[in-house]
Amino acid sequence: MNSLPAQLLAGGFSWPECPRWHAGRFHFSDMYNHRVVALDAAGRPETVADLSERDGLDGAEVVPAGSGHLPDGRLLVVSMFEKVVLVVTEGADGKAEVYADLRDLAAGPVNDMVVTASGRAYVTQLGFDLWAREQPAPSPLLIVESGGAARVATGTEHLMGANGIALTEDGRTLVTAEAFANRLTAFDVGTDGELSGGRVFADIGDLPDGMCLDAEGAAWTALPVTGRAIRVADGGQVLAEVTVPRSEAGSSTACVLGGDDRRTLFLACGVEVFDFQRSRDGAQGSIWQARVQVPGGGTRP
C-alpha cells in the first residue's frame, strides 16, 4: 500500500466538511461558522456563501454541509438541521433561499450531497440526531430533482448513516459511505434517477466519512477515527493512504480530488464536532493536501 503524507494548506476553521472542486476552484463548508469557504493555491480563504444572518426554519441553527452546483452555475447548499437544500447567491452578501424542503422526508439531520450534470441531487441523511446522542438508525437517500421536487430513493431505506456520496464520471454508479455500517455501498443509477442493485462496494472495518471517486473507479474515503484517508478498490482492496499528524489535524472528515489535473487530494480535518461554540472558538479545523497518482477525472463531487 502506498502511504503519502499530507501537507497543511490552511487552518483556523471550525469543523470543515464536504470539500469540493468546481470550475477550477476548491471550496468546503466551514460548518459552525455558517459559511462556505474557497481557498486559493496559497491557502488564502474567501467566503463564497455567508449564512450567518439566516433565520433557520423551526428555530434550527443554520449549519451548511454538502454543496454542489446546478448546470446554470447556482450553488446548492445542504442546511443540516433545517433539513432543507438552499440555493445561494455566491459572495459575502449572498442571499439564500429554500430550494428543496426535506423536512417531511428526513428522520434526522441531512448531510452530504452530490449533484449530477443534469441538476439532479442526491442527499444523504444520518437518520438520527448524532448531536443529541441518539442511537444510529437506518434511513434512505433523498432525491431532489432540478427545480426542487424531492422524494425518497426507493430501495435505500436500509442505509445506516449514509454520509459522503459520489458519482462515477458516466453518472451510472453512485457510491455512499455508510458511516455506522463501516462500509461503502454502491447503486446503479437509472435514467429516471432511481437507484437499484445496491451492493457492498467495500467493507472498511472503520467508520467512513466524506468520500470521492477517481477516474479508475476507486474510492477515497476519510476515516475520522484513525485520522487518514484511504484509497480502496471496488471489492475492498486498500490501494493507498494519505496521513495527517493527529496531534495537529485531529480527525479527518472528508476528501475530494482537485487541482488543475485533479491529482491533488484535499483532506478536511477537525478537532471538535459536538460543541458548536467550542469548535468556533478553538478554530482548529484545517485543510491538508497530497499529490496522488490517479486523477478524479469527471467524477462528482
From TrEMBL:
Binds 1 divalent metal cation per subunit. Substrate binds at residues 111, 129. Residues 15-267 form the SMP-30/Gluconolactonase/LRE-like region domain. InterPro entries: 6-blade_b-propeller_TolB-like, SGL, SMP-30, SMP-30/CGR1_Lactonase. The keyword Hydrolase applies. Pfam families: SGL (PF08450). Its cofactor is Zn(2+). The keyword Hydrolase applies. The active site is at 209 (proton donor/acceptor). Keywords: Hydrolase, Metal-binding, Zinc. One of its GO terms (molecular function) is hydrolase activity. A divalent metal cation binds at residues 163, 209. Coiled coil: none annotated. Belongs to the SMP-30/CGR1 family. This is Sugar lactone lactonase YvrE. It comes from Actinomadura namibiensis.
